[in-house]
Amino acid sequence: MKYQSIAPDFAVTGQIALSDIPAIKEAGFKTVICNRPDGEEAGQPTAETIGEAVRAAGLTFIAIPVASGVPPTSDVVLETQEVLNTLPGPYFAYCRSGNRSAQTWMLATQS
Q1: How far apart are CA 72 and CA 100, in angstroms?
Q2: Residues β-bridged to residue 92
Q3: Which of 47, 54, 70, 92 has the greatest count of CB atoms below 10 A from its CB?
Q4: Cα-Cα-Cα-Cα dihedral sign, residues 15, 21, 22, 24
Q5: How do residues 71-90 score in pLDDT, each as one tens digit?
């Protein structure tokens, strides 16, 4: 699994698999953020499936879906700000490619 650090405490990547969760934990991340809506692609694991495995590994999980092809809504930005202010970091966010997660982080930290 490859990911990109966009800040000292925030990384983004494309869709993760259950098998990626041990590596995410080993890398020191504390909170996993899902920015991908369920059902975007056939065979994609649901946020609930990933969330259960993330929590079982002792990490925090939250789903803040962002629709493809449109900017994150103000509600998404506010929810992301709340996560960054209240849940433990560092943070690991994913969507289909990592772009929506990066855009959401940028808007949440510059608003």
Answers
A1: 8
A2: 11, 32
A3: 92
A4: positive
A5: 999 999 999 999 999 999 99
